[in-house]
Amino acid sequence: MQEGKKQRYPVGIQSFSKIREEDFLYVDKTSLVYKLIEKGGYFFLSRPRRFGKSLLLSTLEAYFKGKKELFKGLALESLVHDWDPRPVLRLDLNNGRYDQADELNILLAYNIGEWEREYKLDKIDDASSLPVGIRFGNLIKKIYEKTGKKVIILVDEYDKPLLNTIEHPEIVNDCRTLLKSFYSNLKTMDEYIEFAMLTGVARFSKVSIFSDLNNLRDISFESEFAGVCGITSDELDEYFKEGIEALAEEEGTSPEEIRAELKRRYDGYHFSRKSPDIYNPFSLMSVFAKKDIGDYWFETGTPTFLVKVIRKLGIPLKDVAPVRVESRFLETAGVMNPNPVALLYQSGYLTIKSYDSRLRTYTLDYPNEEVKQGFLSCLMESYLPQMNSPMGFSISEFINDILIGNVNDFMMRLGNMLAGIPYSEKGSPEARFQDAAYLLFTLTGFFARMEQRTSDGRIDITLETESYVYIFEFKIDSSAEKAMEQIKEKKYWQPFASSGKEIFLIGANFDTAVRTLSEYIIERLS
Hints:
Number of strands: 15
Low-confidence stretches: none
Distance between the termini: 63 Å
Strand order of the largest sheet: 2-3-4-1-5
Radius of gyration: 27 Å
Helix content: 40-55%
Structural class: alpha/beta
Number of helices: 21
Mean pLDDT: 86
């Protein structure tokens, strides 16, 4: 950056050339790029959307095309001495919709045609009628024969055709077959390829399109490359000092408080057993560019498919996170794996929080508040659609009632909110009711726990504020009296007796016929 100029943040810019030529901030990842170049071979990297995968491929493309001037002042400039240009074939599958059976075939054929024109290759008779897999292999070989140089292959969002059609078995099977023939050239044309890298959201291990490839190295879980995309804590301090200070001035607070808030909202991703804390790069860049702390990642897309899977399988929301899984579960999970926890991890809604080497298990949880609140809000829209209407439920009024101990009013609001819960999905009415209550209480931002264990049972819901403890026991098609009897019989309040807070005992009955709270009893412990 030139002296005296304000920092420019590349929000949504994925071109390394544009960032460098137009003096945007670039967090130098080129020492890791050099490690990839030095190791050579074929690589695969899985990362969530908007995490810098496209920029990584663009950086590799610039190096392999010999654009030395773009790397001035970066680590790679002093690490490499071979700037000889190579032929680069870069394929971006991110822009297609793939809702038509032949769209992927048309896109691949178009790119092959563009490469044929770029390298001025002689046309093969009826080449356009050849399957794209064969045509791509011929292209690689012909480029090598014409230039005398091995080819570089870079594929961005390799799995987008599969993710976009996963709910349509016929189309997804066609896409899978086509991609398998296309990517098989990474093995059959190995003698003509110097380097290849594929990126995507889903891991490739169980995806049949790669079943024949034993030369593709998955670096998604390797600690050495954990920080190749995203922003580490050290990089935040090194590159964003100016932005932090400007944001602190805008918010009327200190840089230290801004760092703490950024960490709470955007940090927490881990991509290996020994991964550093990693921030979401898109969210950070957006915050500093707009000088406003917001939920930017969710503005670019919502996990509607994941919500459908969770509801279809009837998975209790309290079981989504945190969750413990065996290492093989993550290390072999693929795009076609129907388990929603695997899909949530691959998509970035869950991340690694710890690893137990003795049991070989990972504990997964939401990486940060932006993801947790955004995902739960998306679930809320599906589970409780009535809250989306202009005349619907008011979260702010509900929160205020909880803060001031206005129990009667917030129970009335809770009853109104739960009215009309749809019951067409798999699972019991009690489970659906608990899911709706869990979402509501969690989104208030208070400390809410579902089915908290005590010495003599499990409390349905506990909710704590600075001044109050609310203990809820819900019955289904029974009575509020029985719910209160259970609270008292099992002495659910005892774990909170020494908290110094006022304790409210709330017994309630949910009537499945009218689909709301039919009655409730409130008692205050002095």
